[in-house]
Design a protein that fits this description.
The structure is a single chain. The chain contains nine helices and five strands, in the order E-H-E-H-H-H-E-H-H-E-H-H-E-H. By secondary structure, the protein is an alpha/beta fold. Strands 2-3-1-4-5 form a five-stranded parallel beta sheet, sandwiched between helices. It starts with 11 loop residues before the first strand and ends in a 7-residue tail after the last helix. It binds P1-(5'-adenosyl)P5-(5'-thymidyl)pentaphosphate and sodium ion.
């Protein structure tokens, strides 16, 4: 039973993966699943294109503006920092937050351009630590076959291959890896199980960390 009502905190659930791996599809069905259980949940995504920082990022991604690699990296990070306090208060009030991309995207994509790994990680220090990171694993060639591919700056096969390598260098044993080439329904089931357990752990008193 994950319905609201006690004073435990919500879980911070992060979905990661290459462009077109299915994060948006899965995060929205996960959100519906949690709502169906009566568990308070919100769906967030980074970049959050609604803020003024987010609009600069969006313009860069759609090739309407040019920015130095380090500048755009710091804007992606700033876009997470500007939501940090809201994130913390929501989690503390018992709401689970499903986040479509987080710090790992920041590090994986920028380091794939050749920027130093530790330099990329530094501005993420102090953001809230996820309770679970789910990586939707897809070969870059398969992702490229999916609808709408190629519209934004990073949606290039060669670049996505480098991003995949960066994710491999970044992940640790705590990450949950799901084969993103499976049918949507199968992925949904596996994701639900992982997130259910994570929410239960938070409700048993696991503390929020940075
Ligand atoms: N970025 C992001 C950084 O460089 N630094 C950062 O700090 C951050 C946060 C924008 C870009 O910014 C970069 C990474 C990105 O390049 P974004 O807006 O999240 O990030 O862009 P995408 O990851 O490309 O998001 P998309 O919405 O385009 O892809 P999704 O969400 O992974 O995939 P989804 O669910 O939209 O599905 C894509 C297609 O595949 C189909 C869907 O119907 C859709 O057509 N599909 C499946 N087909 C077959 N089998 C399945 N299981 C399927 N699941 C979905
Ligand atoms: Na995209």
């Amino acid at each position: 039973n994950l319905s609201g009502g006690n004073d435990s905190r919500g879980a911070l659930v992060v979905l990661e993966g290459l462009d077109r791996c299915g994060k948006t599809t899965q995060s929205s069905s996960l959100h519906k699943y949690l709502e169906g259980l009566g568990h308070p949940a919100e769906l967030w995504r980074f970049p959050d294109r609604t803020t003024s920082v987010g609009q600069m990022i969006s313009s860069y991604l759609s090739n309407q503006s040019q920015l130095d690699d380090r500048t755009i990296h710091l804007l992606f990070s700033a876009n997470r920092w500007e939501k940090r306090s809201l994130m913390e208060s929501k989690l503390k009030s018992g709401t689970t937050i499903i986040v479509d991309r987080y710090s790992y995207s920041g590090v994986a994509f920028s380091s794939a351009k050749g920027l130093d790994f530790d330099w990329c990680k530094a501005p993420e220090n102090g953001l809230l630590a996820p309770d679970v990171v789910v990586y939707l694993d897809i070969p870059p060639e398969k992702a490229a076959e999916r609808g709408g591919y190629g519209g934004e700056r990073y949606e290039q096969l060669e670049f996505q291959m480098k991003v995949r390598q960066s994710y491999q260098a970044l992940h640790d044993a705590s990450w949950k890896i799901i084969d993103a080439c499976q049918p949507v329904k199968d992925i949904e089931k596996q994701l639900q199980e992982i997130v259910f357990k994570s929410i239960e752990t938070c409700r048993k008193g696991k503390s929020l960390t940075c």
